[in-house]
Amino acid sequence: MEHLGLNEIRKRFLNFYESKDHYVGKSASLIPKNDKSILIINSGMAPLKPYFAGTETPPKKRMCTCQKCIRTGDIDNVGHTARHGTFFEMLGNFSFGDYFKKESIGWGVEFLTEHLGFPMDKLWATVYLDDEEAIKIWEDNGMDPSHIVRLGKEDNFWEIGLGPCGPDSEIFYDRGEEFGCGKPDCKPGCDCDRFMEIWNHVFTQFSKEEDGSYSNLAHPNIDTGMGLERMACVMQDTLSIFDVDTIRYILDGVCEMSGVEYTDGDKDSDISIRIITDHIRAMTFMIADGIMPSNEGRGYVLRRILRRAARHGRLLGIKGTFLKELSNRVIEVSGEAYPELIEKKDYIQKIIQVEEDNFNQTIDKGEEIIQEYIRSLVQSGEKELDGERAFKLYDTYGFPLELTEEILEAKGFTADEEGFKVNMQAQKDRARASRKSNDEEGWDAAELDLNVPKTEFVGYDVLKAEGNVLAIIKDQKLSESLFEGEKGVLIFDKTPFYAEGGGQVTDKGVIFKGDVLAEIIKVEKKDGIFYHTVSLKNGSIATGDTMGLAVYNKYRNATARNHTATHLLQKALREIVGTHVEQAGSMVNENGLRFDFTHFEPISEEQLKEIEARVNEKILEFLPVVTTEMPISEAQKLGAMALFGEKYGESVRVVNAGGWSIELCGGTHVNNTGEIGCFKLMSETGVASGVRRIEAVTGTGVLAIANANEALITRVADAFKSNKKAIVDRIRTHIEEFKSMKKELEEIKKQAMGSEVDDLIKNSREINGIRVITSSFTDYNINDLRTLSDDVKKNYKNTAMVFAAVSEDKVTFLTSLTDDLVEKGYHAGNMIKQIAKIAGGGGGGKADMAQAGGKDPSKVKEALEFVDNLL
Ligand code: ATP
Ligand code: MG
After folding, report:
1. Alpha carbon distance 730, 59 (integer Å)
2. pLDDT tens for residues 436-495?
3. Three-class SS state of 3
4. Is 460 helix (H, G, I), strand (E, B) or coil?
């Protein structure tokens, strides 16, 4: 067998299948597309499901890929087994209703024996019990019948719930007796390391029906998976996947940085080294695909992996951060096959650095706390850490629960996962409750027995409509009517009022009929029903009434300008800052807009200018803004930006500004970007780790800002008794004057101190042959006193000074000794302890100078006299 590098095996595989007329697909992103069943792509076939299901057309009926995979389920195996990583690459060939078993097995054998040089007599295959067809094909391809092992459903039949399923056949390589358990019946399926599974071929030929029966698929499929790292491990004859060429290079980096030797064994340090080696690969690839560390979903997986790696680095004795540096090696060995790693290198490394820095800042404290918890568990004889404390570690110190568990486990303890969840939920509830109590009307639709149809929203097209009152909610109960001066919630059959949502605020407006008039406070939408919270100014409203509903177009227009501008801003950000920018939150009202997005560092002044200019450019291009309803698949073809993780229905609303910005959005917009008038950035700040916020205004908002700035300048000029033209010079002159006055003042103070020194010497006394100066001051602060004592020391020796700076409710003492006294063994720090004690304080300091506070100014005299006793 040839000794091939990992990158070479990948190339040969893809080339081989290309020669068999396969389309060579690029690895899909680790983030699944339109697939809520998995968090992260975990196999070669996962991103191809729509091709197998027939909902999308593949580029060709034969395809092959090398797919990046993450399996979080294997995280506890990593480092402990020879064959698991959280990250790995899966090679696969696929047939969407084209070729079947014969070609799949035949080409598999051809590739292994002719292109990789596997000896046929080292190969084994497992097949599903009664899959005679597969057995025959194996024999036809030269497999020794004694190497074909029949296994049951749990081993060789692939199915998930209902739908397509079928038998599979796994190819094993016999690594030799020396790897084996020695049992006479050892064969594929045995737990030992002799037979290594290298390739699984799945023959999807059945469909499982509701009644449990299996029907034949008209067009059976092929789906195979071969772990690239494991293949390299076999071909390079290494002990584990961590010794494979490219991965070993990363592992060596860990050893260099930590100075710890890798012994290929089961020592704790070996395990840590393998964990870091795997995790650095996982995080580098995840970040390249746009995953950001966070406390939820994929972001949490990334955070967990990154923090776990950082912690194992510490266990190896690495000081400071190291992951960013280590990621270089991942990019070096995988960059050619995955160019996105090179393209996004700076970005990837910044995210790693920020997250590792953040973690490092709290980890020490957190570790201390965990150790304290462990001591208390030992004392109380408990085995489990309660959920409250586990949650505190998570909430305050950023310890993922799994990390806490891992640290506990090493000492033989566990954590109460249920209790952790309860605490997590309680915190969420508290947050929700505080949001709710801020609401004016705390009603809950779920608690009312409402029987009304969904509200028809007509507000995209008109701002005025007539609606029938279907229900009235008052004091959180259904009611027949609402009277003057009361607040309540109205539900209509249709409405032009936009309900708060997608970051856009409720429309403002009125509900009226004759002289009945109600003002809209807010409109909320739940399960398609619009709830209008109103305040009734005049008359009464009863269920069944027909009312006029009118939106104030001034506010609506201003809000629309800001909403469309938000779309332009997002597009500009993605163009100028990078495509990793994703919306993380947004708020649009008539006064302005706020847009939160994923990015790891402040945006530079220059880029901000560029962004503002780009948005204004697009406004002045007068781009038409067109909204269209269409199937989600079509929207995707247009490249519409969708909210990450948001659920969309079959049909979506697409807002398209001149083909430049295309977003899925339910909000209200201008008809032409020109209506926005003007766009001005107000601020750019950080709101959370990896999330930035931009605030901006448009149209009349820009004018308002300009006017406000102008007014501010006028006020400043007035305050300086100047005018707009002269104000800058005026302020400069003031500053100059101020500076020279300050200097003068310091001079005067210095002179005053000079005479102070003379006075002090005059009033000194002699104790034990030492000149003693004690004095209390009310007009000098402690810094002044230090200067004063330095001045004395300049000209006098053999002198001990104790000063007190006294204010109304406290006193600060300074003890200062000339050097010759210090040499004789006097110690200012020790002296001041006793002096300050008398005035109810404490402190200390060095031998030549010390400082201390006291709480009782009335004891100052007594304290200063005590100096004589001390000396
Ligand atoms: P195992 O039982 O060893 O965990 P598996 O049955 O989960 O493997 P499959 O789901 O059949 O594996 O995945 C197909 C191939 O992907 C495997 O044959 C193996 O080569 C590779 N593979 C699976 N999990 C990992 C992993 N955690 N690290 C590296 N390679 C893996
Ligand atoms: Mg597995």
Report:
1. 72
2. 544 444 455 555 667 788 899 999 999 999 999 999 998 888 888 899 999 999 999 999
3. coil
4. coil
